[in-house]
Amino acid sequence: MARPGTIARRYAEAVFELALRDDSVESWLEQLRALGGALGDPALVRRLEDPKVPVDERLLAVTRSLGDGAIPQVSNLVGLLLRRGRLDELPSIAREFGRLYNRHEGIVEVVATSAMELDEDEVAALRMRLEQITTGRVELERRVDASLLGGVQVRLGDLLIDGSVRGRIERLRARLAEGSLIP
């Protein structure tokens, strides 16, 4: 059995290559995000995968949400997923496509977790510093975790920069346990 995310990654890579070839990456990104958001509801996916309703009617219901600017290949992808019973993979495909887009455009995905909501000046300063470190554009996702007590944790891929109060306390506790603070 395939690992979770493998199916979505394969579909995303295939449609990303199509989008690059057709020079329609931004349109694909916009439409996949719209569909991925709409199909994030498992109840809606179950209704759309109901075999009692003809595939053409279900496909029409999904693609109608995109409006007149729908790319035909996006409709083809949705139809393929519907016929294979994998419509629930569309939100994951949209996320994977977004990651591929960011990598292609040189955008670094960063998650910043703070104890409290950061104000706009703090976000701007953090973004500027991260862009200096990464030498690229930064897509900053902000999260709040009160257990950090203060400060910020920044995750750049596999790298964690822990500037939180909780992290400092844990590091101090570890050093005390080792006895490395004793002169």
CATH class call of the largest domain: Mainly Alpha
**Count of DSSP H/I helices:** 8
Write down the overall mean pLDDT. 86
**Low-confidence sequence ranges:** none
Biggest sheet record: 4 strands, mixed
- Strand order within the widest sheet? 2-1-3-4
| 3D shape | elongated
Helix content: 55-70%
Order of helices and strands: HHHHHHEHEEEH
Strand content: 15-25%
- The CATH architecture assignment of the largest domain turns out to be Orthogonal Bundle
CATH topology of the largest domain: Peroxidase, domain 1
Number of domains: 2
What would you say about this model in short?
The protein is an alpha+beta fold. 57% of the residues lie in helices and 15% in strands.
Descriptive keywords:
183 residues, alpha+beta, elongated, Peroxidase, domain 1, 8 helices, single chain
Commentary on this structure:
The protein has 183 residues and is of the alpha+beta class. The protein folds into 2 domains: 6-102, Orthogonal Bundle (Peroxidase, domain 1); 107-178, no CATH class. 57% of the residues lie in helices and 15% in strands. It contains 8 helices and 4 strands. The protein has helices spanning 6-22, 25-38, 42-48, 55-64, 72-83, 90-105, 120-134, 165-178; strands at 107-114, 137-144, 151-156, 159-164. Helix 1 runs antiparallel to helix 2. It starts with 5 loop residues before the first helix and ends in a 5-residue tail after the last helix. The model has no long low-confidence stretch (mean pLDDT 86).
